[in-house]
Amino acid sequence: MKKINLGLIGLGVVGSGVYSILKENKKHILLRRGIELNVKKIAVKDITKKRSIDVDKSIITSNIDDIINDTEINIVIELVGGIDFSFDLIKKSLEKNKHVITANKALLAIKGKELFGLANKNQLEIGFEASVGGGIPIIRTIKDALVGDKIKSIYGIINGTSNYILTKMVNENQDFNYALKRAQELGFAEADPTLDINGGDAAHKIAILASFAFNSIIPYDSIYCEGIDKIELNDIYYAKELGYTIKLLGIADEIMENQICVRVHPTLIPIDSPLANIKNEFNAILIDSHFLGNSMYSGKGAGMFPTANAVVSDIVEIAENIAYNIEFNEYKNIHYSKKELVPLSSKCYQYYLRFNTLDKPGILAKIAGIFGDNKISIARVIQKGKHKDSFVHLILETHDAYENDVQKAINIIDKLAIVDPPSTILRIMHPGNSN
Amino acid sequence: MKKINLGLIGLGVVGSGVYSILKENKKHILLRRGIELNVKKIAVKDITKKRSIDVDKSIITSNIDDIINDTEINIVIELVGGIDFSFDLIKKSLEKNKHVITANKALLAIKGKELFGLANKNQLEIGFEASVGGGIPIIRTIKDALVGDKIKSIYGIINGTSNYILTKMVNENQDFNYALKRAQELGFAEADPTLDINGGDAAHKIAILASFAFNSIIPYDSIYCEGIDKIELNDIYYAKELGYTIKLLGIADEIMENQICVRVHPTLIPIDSPLANIKNEFNAILIDSHFLGNSMYSGKGAGMFPTANAVVSDIVEIAENIAYNIEFNEYKNIHYSKKELVPLSSKCYQYYLRFNTLDKPGILAKIAGIFGDNKISIARVIQKGKHKDSFVHLILETHDAYENDVQKAINIIDKLAIVDPPSTILRIMHPGNSN
After folding, report:
1. Is residue B433 part of a domain?
2. What percent of chain A has pLDDT over 90?
3. What is the pTM of this model?
């Protein structure tokens, strides 16, 4: 039995969850791994704050240096969020020879290269299972289960707030604003939900996943990112009529050996796709790899205990490596490959397009002509009755076409007098239906 | 960079897959983990046999002692199947200080206690990710991702053949025998499919999963096991009418702190259950754990490369532990807990029951009366037209009732002159719909 000392920085929702799990399952973890995990110190902003959990006051401090300078602490667990403060404290911890665990996806997406580099230099580990997909062990799966495989594509429902809102729109006909309000009331959305609904949070997560899946640091700011804030109930209905549901997906796929495309956007997927049944606040990640084929991992993507559970799994892994004296493997965090990032504009998709057009004869012919001129072929057309004033909805589903060509065509169409812009462009994919 | 020597025993479907992956992704694994994996020797039954893969003849032997006695070989990979021969060679390998990897679920289910005990005594690891769920990293997930959590229940679609047959029955109205024949033609069922369709294979797998999930060796022969061979198309139709689909599930759940129930049987599950969309040869395992809640893992449960991929993930993990000198953690394979196995007869379920009854007035009253006498309350009734001669189908869905009481009632009913036995008893569960 070996004792490993932990320093916890932050005692908010996830921090309290970590503390509770470690307390409740201390003996269980000891029996399973022979390791005694001891929370030696907890740093918080406000020592006097009332907490929902019962913590021994003698281990609480408001000074993070009490943790960083404590030579008996082996692992620092950063659960404060934000960028600059977290970056500083993780950097200092690594410099003081401490392993680090974090759930901070924004930080890793933006500063991952620097932090992993520093960790490697000092022969230390950074555990970050909790940063993507909450309780879903997706980092482990990519790093360990698929270590001998090559990943071809990742499709992730990795923002619980968006998935909750879209589920309510699809299943209960709630409009976007009402569903968002309900999500906030239920705690599935933040008071400021900007990063959730504009796709930014999903972009952080797909950046992290893609970096490890494709062994190449993905610059966060190069990721095309479109959220769900422009999805209307009409589009949900028409998609359903065409056999699709709408999910916000983080997507990364390999085009050729050294080219990948990483992006976030709402996506129409067939209702029998394995991702279509992932509802409400649940997350799921579908991976297509060369040898394993399609595999999918789903579970709660956020919340106190799911996220804390992932943090605890990292604590045990790193603690075990310390206790059983494993030598540091510098290869583990190396992104040995340099992939070229292909912009979305050169990708090929099927498209769902909705135009608000005047209700006059000849309009479909006009629009279809513009598509033909741009090498886009149409698979299905739906025309819907009165929309507003004298406008109607014209919905087109295309065959595979290049994003560039579609954008060009839409630009032309949106300038026509018969069309009330902006037109709606959504992409269609078939994740998990290929094998 | 460290070189680890492997001895492969068996070069059938999975063995060939392992060899191919190691060959194709040797550099990839080296770059990811700094380990060179070298297949030093391969033992096969027949050296002269033509093989679909190109293997250097100089490393092939027909004598397994060439591997077991080779002191340079660090890891033995057993891929021959069967019980006695495999048990012997694994035992010998462990005695000769070699780590072992196996995909042999029958062996582990039956002889696991002895083998893990021997491995622990000699401070060696047994990798067995490939034994359950093919390419799904479920053993890793239970042992590592959920190490700090407590598992409440496991529901597994863990026999691909059964799932393929049931999918064809549900989606294409194929009858059992036709679907089985198709599965054999497509390679999803063995020439002798007995263990697949009688539930034995699923029982091996749930025994392994439950042992590690509940930290207690589950004696294989104590598992209640019922296969899909008695499922009729009629039951598929009626289940659908009631909102259910039918899956063969391996199930293990905790009743109280020290009691678990482990069994395999066809199960009616709601069509919107996350397990309902797992189709054809795919497997899925749904776990409900105390902190994480419901999480699900799905992918191909068998086949050359999915299974080989799991073997390779074990090779890399054990090779890394050897290369980076981790000390052996004896706790890892200890089943520290002793759980009481609760028999199915004392479990509580909802039931789907089908009776072949005469088409006469008063029969429902008679049968309902017997249910009432046995404390079983009825939720829904369907009566279907002519079945054979003058018999009709009477389908009952019960509220929660004890298996014991239901069996008692059925025994009485099957002896009535108005009933043509045997009646069909299927259990209804709601996996994944609780949270």
Report:
1. no
2. 87
3. 0.94
